[in-house]
Amino acid sequence: MSHDALNGHDAMFGPDALHNKYSLVKGAARRARQLQSGALPLMATTSMKACRVAQDEIRTGHVRFVVMPSPKAIALSAL
After folding, report:
1. Which terminal CB of the chain, N or C, has fewer other CB atoms within 10 Å?
2. Are 63 and 42 in contact (CB under 8 A)?
3. Residues 12-60: pLDDT tens digits?
4. Percent helix, strand and coil across the chain, each to the nearest 5
5. For residues 73 and 58, what is the distance between their CA atoms, to the nearest angstrom?
6. 73 exposed, middle or buried (CB, 10 Å; 0-12, 13-18, 19+)?
7. Which pLDDT score is estimated for 18?
8. Residues contacting residue 6 through CB under 8 Å, at least 6 positions apart
9. What CA–CA distance (Å, rounded) separates 69 from 72?
10. Domain boundaries, the chain
11. Which SMART domains does this entry report, sorted A to Z (predicted)?
12. Contact criterion met (CB below 8 Å) for 27 and 18
């Protein structure tokens, strides 16, 4: 895969939606677990696989993530 293709893949998910690729994987896994536990999909999709549905929801902006500050950062900001 070319470098441009990799950049296009990253752009598909948008810089605001994710902190990094690790966050994408963690978020998609969490959403997939919700779907497997009975949560309804937030959009129409052709896939029956929870992981694919979760990735599609993230890609289209139906699911967003908030990166919470670490407890250490919160304690330091209180000083």
Report:
1. C
2. yes
3. 455 454 567 888 888 899 999 999 999 999 999 889 999 999 999 998 9
4. 55, 0, 45
5. 27
6. exposed
7. 56
8. none
9. 8
10. 21-64
11. RNA_pol_Rpb6
12. yes
Distances (CA, A) of 18 to 41, 47, 48: 20, 23, 24
What pLDDT is stored for residue 6 in this prediction? Answer: 39
For residues 52 and 58, the answer to whether their CB atoms sit within 8 Å is: no
Mean pLDDT calculated for residue range 58-73: 81
- Name the one residue in this structure whose structure tokens are 């994987």: 25
Q: Which amino acid is at 7?
A: N
DSSP 43: S
Q: What is the DSSP string of 15-36?
A: TTT-SSHHHHHHHHHHHHHHHH
- Largest Cα span, the chain: 51
